[in-house]
Automatic annotation (TrEMBL):
Belongs to the NDRG family. This is Uncharacterized protein ZK1073.1-like. The lineage of its organism: Eukaryota, Metazoa, Ecdysozoa, Arthropoda, Hexapoda. SUPFAM superfamilies: alpha/beta-Hydrolases.
Length: 110
């Protein structure tokens, strides 16, 4: 597990090892220690983007009330995290079913 605090937006970074997707970069906005008292949203980015699209969305002023009462868990898929190397030749990208099953690992980690 690696942890770091994001500079522009306030969030914590983790690297979570999953069984079939490999290392997933996870970015958490909100206090994980408050998860029993807050709504939790798990986000997965669209093709060609990463967690930054959700950070910008959650940090928009119109989201402030929801942000104050929630925890947002943004997951970067393989090869989409900041400064990611190209995926190796022959890498078989996980199916949506596999990704969905491995996201449970992220939730269990937190």
């Amino acid at each position: 597990m690696a942890m770091a605090r994001g500079a522009k937006h306030h969030y914590m970074n983790y690297i979570v090892s999953s069984e079939r997707c490999g290392d997933l970069h996870v970015h958490v906005q909100g206090e994980v220690s408050q998860q029993e008292k807050r709504a939790c949203f798990l986000t997965v980015h669209d093709l060609g983007t990463n967690h930054h699209s959700f950070l910008d969305f959650v940090n928009h002023p119109c989201m402030q009330e929801i942000k104050d009462r929630s925890i947002f868990v943004h997951v970067d898929m393989p090869g989409h995290h900041d400064n990611a190397d190209n995926l190796p030749d022959g890498f078989e990208y996980p199916s949506l079913d596999v990704i969905g099953e491995d996201l449970v690992t992220v939730l269990d980690f937190l």
